[in-house]
Write a structure and sequence with these properties.
alpha/beta; 336 residues; single chain; four-stranded parallel β-sheet
Length: 336
């Protein structure tokens, strides 16, 4: 099965895959019961990531165009009466349009150019879902924004919670959706317009970080370097929960070169935010890169819990569908 992708388009690659498979099913090029290639096979053939193909397959399954059978594969759904009826209507409209264009003395070649132009115009009008992410510290906020930005059709604007709470009036940013952590949900609710509410996200320590902390010897002299005191507290809490260190953990902050140098000298292991490069100066980064390459720093990986991320993706898809298909296509919102 051949998938032709156009990387110049603003349409995401997964959506191009969905559209091509949907069209081929509608036109009968892919018959009911046809076994689709595996995610890995189609990813290799098309030259895009398996995650993109999996997301496309998930969207097709949600639309009841395909179904997955454990151990057997992915198949085109057999019940396509409605699809066939819609296909016939579309083909009839196309025939009528061709007759009108030819009646105006335009050639089929002209029509192809016009159609391509109008399709491109439609694609360019597809808007992203704007999401406001709110948290109390820049490290966690950067993590949250990074994960949300990876979701299809999404643009993220970040806000520090303290600044939001201190600002006059209600928090009413020009966005489609506001998200924050469960910890800050009630505080942010009190700042928003009555009747509106943010989407709650659960943040968690990554499993590999927990395992690495648990594996540290008791005698390890650990130092942590962060951009904010609040993120330092999160890291210290993780050290207490997962680690078994005897010596107190030392702290330093980006922007304090001497403090960082002192921690490096006093400790034999460092724990850094996974996105520390966003906050370290060139000089500070050079100090950290001079560490023993055999020991090297540990990275504190903090992330949006998978269930929360899946829920958020559903909300973003619902909003995006309302932008592209109108409010009538928008299912009711579900509060997190």
């Amino acid at each position: 099965m051949r998938i032709a992708l156009d990387h110049r388009k603003t349409v995401p690659l997964y959506q191009q895959v969905v559209e091509q498979i949907t069209r081929d099913i509608a036109l009968g090029k892919i018959p009911a019961g046809f076994k689709l290639p595996t995610v890995r096979e189609l990813a290799k053939e098309s030259g895009i990531s398996p995650g993109t193909i999996k997301h496309a397959y998930d969207m097709l399954e949600q639309s009841a165009l395909i179904h997955k059978t454990r151990g057997s594969g992915t198949f085109v759904c057999a019940t396509q009466g409605a699809m066939g009826s819609t296909k016939a209507q579309v083909l009839q409209h196309i025939d009528e349009m061709l007759d009108k264009v030819q009646g105006l003395s335009f050639s089929l070649h002209d029509l192809r150019i016009f159609l391509d132009l109008k399709i491109r115009e439609r694609e360019e009008t597809l808007t992203h879902v704007r999401v406001a992410a709110v948290d109390c510290n820049p490290e966690a906020l950067a993590v949250m924004a990074s994960q949300i930005t990876e979701l299809p059709h999404t643009e993220v604007i970040t806000y520090i919670l303290d600044e939001v709470l201190k600002s006059p009036g209600h928090f009413d940013p020009p966005v489609d959706l506001v998200v924050t952590t469960s910890t800050h949900y009630q505080d942010l609710m009190g700042k928003m317009i009555p009747g509106s509410h943010p989407c709650r996200l659960v943040m968690t320590v990554a499993t590999d970080t927990a395992l690495e902390l648990a594996a540290l010897p008791e005698e390890t002299r650990l130092g942590i370097i962060t951009a904010s005191e609040r993120y330092a507290q999160l890291m210290l809490r993780a050290c207490g929960v997962y680690g078994k260190l005897k010596a107190p953990v030392k702290q330093a902050f980006f922007g304090d070169r001497d403090g960082i140098a002192a921690v490096i000298q006093a400790c034999n292991r460092l724990l850094l935010p996974s996105n520390y490069a966003l906050f370290a100066s060139q000089e500070e980064a050079a100090l950290l890169s001079a560490e023993d390459p055999h020991l090297g720093p540990l990275f504190y990986r903090y992330q949006v819990e998978r269930g929360s991320l899946l829920f958020l993706e559903e909300q973003i898809h619902r909003i995006f569908k309302s932008h592209t298909c109108g409010p009538q296509a928008m299912p009711p919102a579900v509060e997190a």
